Amino acid sequence: MAEQTTERITVGAPPERCYEVAVDFELYPEWAKDIKDVKVVERDAEGRGRHVEYRAAAMGRSVTYTLEYDYAQAPAGFSWTLVKGDLMKRLDGTYRFDADGDGTRVTYELSVDLALPLPGLVKRRAESRIVGSALKELKKRVESGQPSTPS
Question: pTM for this one?
Fold first, then answer.
C-alpha cells in the first residue's frame, strides 16, 4: 500500500521561478543528484513535458520510470503519476508553489509503492530522503539564478 510523504521548504524566489525550474525536466541531471538521465517522450500543446522518462539511482541500483504530468494547477503547481517503472508500482506526486513574503513556500507530496516489499521504517526513510533531497536541491538550483530553458 502506498503512503504519502509531504514536506515543505521556503525558497528565496518568486513562485514563477520555482515552477519554471521544476518543469525544466531535461536539466534535472545538472542539479538533482540522483537523476542520471531524462528524456521527454511526449509534450503537451504548450510544449511542456507530458510523458517524461527518467533513469535514476535508487537503493544502490539504476532504475527507470516514466511519469505523466498534469498541469491543471499551473503555474501554482503540477502533479504526476507513474506510467511505468521497473522498481515501483506507484510514484505519484505534486509540487505546489505558494507566495510567502518575498519567497515561495514549496510543498512536495509523494506517494510511493514499490514492487518489492520493504519494512515500513525503511520505506518511510527512503521516501523522506527522496522528498527532502528534492526540495533542498530545487531550492539550491532556484536560488542560484542559473537559467532554465522554457519547457
Answer: 0.88
CA angle 68, 142, 56 (to 5 degrees): 45
**Which position has the grid cell 498541469?**
71
Third-level CATH fold of 3-144 = Alpha-D-Glucose-1,6-Bisphosphate; Chain A, domain 4 (3.30.530)
Calculate the alpha carbon distances from 16 to 136, 141, 143 in Å.
Answer: 18, 14, 13
- Cell readout for 148 is 532554465
Residue 87 has pLDDT above 50, yes or no: yes
As a whole number of angstroms, the distance between CA 37 and CA 123 comes to: 24
Taking Cα atoms as reference points, which of 11, 35, 10, 34 lies closest to residue 25?
Answer: 35
**How many CA atoms lie less than 13 Å away from 81 in the CB half-sphere?**
3
pLDDT in tens, 6-51: 999 999 999 999 999 999 999 999 999 989 999 999 999 999 999 9
